[in-house]
Amino acid sequence: MLNKRCRQEIRMRAFTLSELIIASTVFLLVLLGLVSSHLFGMRLFQTTQMKLGVQQEARTVLIQLSEEIKSSRRVRIGRGDFFSFLPSLSGEPQIGNAIQIYPSQDTNDFIRYFRDPTDQNLKRLSSSGTGPDIIARAITNEFVFSAEDHLGNILTNNRNNRVVGMELNFYQLQNPTLNLGPGQLFDEYRWTTRITRRILE
Question: Which end of the chain has fewer surrounding CB within 10 Å, N or C?
Answer without folding.
Answer: N
